[in-house]
């Protein structure tokens, strides 16, 4: 029976029925496409699929980001929209506390069991961030740098931290409410600090917190960063770095003295963030939602590249790094600064390369010192590996036990930089 128009009961022309068939086919393909997009969006690891499909094979197993359309990027960001927003605001609030301590002469410094310094700023920032995470994601595990044992044994120190935590509040009441408001009392604060004791690992959702990365820089008046990252099944999915002493302006040149006598006034204070597969962004620390995309600077002339390294010679081998720079033909002196500010600085193209060569063969890098920076650099078009060219492996516990050192550079030149690193290390081991 020929098709008939239900309104007129007249037979339809052949042309019309072919058109309607094509239209139906087109509509059903379109609905399949929409359904596929929605189901991808429902899977938080949509970015994982994208990275799997497009991952670079240029250097060992390291993954680097590829550019995606703005609509795909925003779909991916939506998958972790709440995590990103909470992380940004939690880091912003923690920096209000660290900035207060930064301006104090006495920073309540004590030595930890490994002899590294910790301040009332570290403890206070950790308590505030964990409070925000516990309020929003009570089932998530947390790996954080500090623990409260020393504070339980030192009520005076605990009191100093409590008064900071109690009095630190975001000016925006809605943002403060998002984080669950104030910590109720000193005991609750100590318990929160101790909630960062997860062993980490390859399964589930784990937040990695460094409440003040670069504590030595913080004490010296240099750069420091408040760092927060979400790992899901061992992969960094969200990374946020609050850098109170870096310029807000992404195009500000990286001056050689940026790591010395730093201040958090006059246009300083930047928040870097990234969601895996969604690109990297920067915003003023005072306005996290005013985020702009950032990307690494293409290195067309290696001799003009800027490389960043730690201030502390005990944290990375300055001599080896200088030799690598010489081999690459880099003529500028290194820019030394503390903390993951180095990752943020190269991600926005203020610098180009970050080298962290091991000083002690036995030292294992901590996941909280790298998780957020690693993602931000990769999402800005960089590649981050260890000295063997392996991607940083955040799935094996609280440390990067499978990695040695860090080599971060724009993806296009990472292979060249890695070769120089390996040549220098090989020459050194032959000479030993
Ligand atoms: N021997 C060592 N080698 C490499 N990193 C080390 C180290 N001793 C300490 N660190 C880490 O170096 C971090 C600072 O990095 P940078 O040198 O880039 O500023 C410290 O973080 P904290 O300041 O949070 O303790 C600490 O975890
Ligand atoms: Mg640190």
From TrEMBL:
Domain of life the protein comes from: Eukaryota
Entry's transmembrane regions: 21-40
An example Gene Ontology molecular-function term: 3'(2'),5'-bisphosphate nucleotidase activity
Keywords: Hydrolase, Magnesium, Membrane, Metal-binding, Transmembrane, Transmembrane helix
EC assignment: 3.1.3.7
Top-rank EC class of the record's enzyme: hydrolase
GO biological process: phosphatidylinositol phosphate biosynthetic process; sulfate assimilation; tRNA decay
List of residues binding Mg(2+): 145, 210, 212-213, 369
UniProt-listed PROSITE patterns: IMP_1, IMP_2
Catalysed reaction equations from the record: adenosine 2',5'-bisphosphate + H2O = AMP + phosphate; 3'-phosphoadenylyl sulfate + H2O = adenosine 5'-phosphosulfate + phosphate; adenosine 3',5'-bisphosphate + H2O = AMP + phosphate
Cofactor: Mg(2+)
Keyword Metal-binding: yes
Family recorded in the similarity comment: Belongs to the inositol monophosphatase superfamily.
Record protein name field: 3'(2'),5'-bisphosphate nucleotidase
Protein source organism: Sodiomyces alkalinus (strain CBS 110278 / VKM F-3762 / F11)
């Amino acid at each position: 029976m020929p098709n008939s128009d239900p309104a007129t009961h007249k037979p339809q022309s052949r042309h019309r029925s072919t058109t309607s068939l094509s239209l139906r086919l087109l509509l059903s393909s379109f609905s399949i496409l929409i359904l596929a997009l929605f189901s991808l969006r429902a899977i938080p690891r949509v970015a994982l699929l994208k990275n799997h499909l497009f991952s670079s094979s240029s250097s060992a197993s390291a993954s680097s980001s590829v550019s995606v359309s703005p609509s795909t990027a925003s779909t991916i960001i939506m998958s972790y929209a709440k995590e990103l927003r909470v992380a940004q605001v939690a880091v912003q609030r923690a920096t209000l506390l660290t900035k207060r301590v930064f301006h104090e002469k006495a920073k309540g410094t004590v030595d930890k069991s490994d002899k590294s310094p910790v301040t009332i700023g570290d403890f206070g920032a950790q308590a505030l961030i964990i409070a925000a995470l516990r309020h929003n994601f009570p089932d998530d595990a947390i790996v954080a740098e500090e623990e409260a044992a020393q504070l339980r044994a030192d009520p005076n120190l605990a009191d100093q931290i409590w008064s900071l935590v109690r009095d630190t509040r975001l000016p925006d009441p809605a943002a403060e409410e998002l984080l669950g408001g104030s910590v109720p009392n000193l005991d609750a604060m100590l318990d929160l600090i101790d909630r960062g004791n997860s062993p980490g690992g390859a399964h589930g959702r784990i937040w990695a917190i460094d409440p003040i990365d670069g504590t030595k820089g913080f004490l010296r008046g240099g750069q420091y960063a408040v760092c927060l990252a979400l790992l899901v099944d061992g992969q960094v999915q969200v990374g946020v770095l609050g850098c109170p002493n870096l310029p807000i302006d992404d195009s500000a040149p990286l001056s050689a003295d940026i790591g010395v006598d730093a201040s958090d006034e006059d246009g300083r204070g930047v928040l870097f963030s990234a969601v895996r597969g969604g690109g990297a962004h920067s915003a003023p620390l005072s306005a996290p939602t005013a985020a702009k995309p950032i990307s690494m600077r293409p290195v067309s002339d290696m001799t003009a590249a800027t490389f960043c390294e730690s201030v502390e010679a005990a944290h990375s081998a300055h001599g080896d790094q200088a030799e690598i720079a010489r081999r690459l033909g880099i003529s500028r002196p290194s820019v030394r600064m503390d903390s993951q500010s180095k990752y943020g600085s190269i991600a926005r193209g203020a610098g180009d390369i970050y080298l962290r060569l091991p000083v002690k063969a036995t030292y294992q890098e901590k996941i909280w010192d790298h998780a957020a920076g690693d993602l931000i650099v990769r999402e800005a078009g960089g590649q981050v590996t260890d000295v063997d060219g392996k991607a940083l492996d955040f799935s094996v516990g609280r440390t990067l036990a499978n990695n040695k050192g860090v080599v971060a550079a724009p993806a296009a030149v990472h292979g060249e930089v890695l070769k120089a690193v390996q040549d220098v290390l090989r020459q050194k081991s032959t000479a030993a």
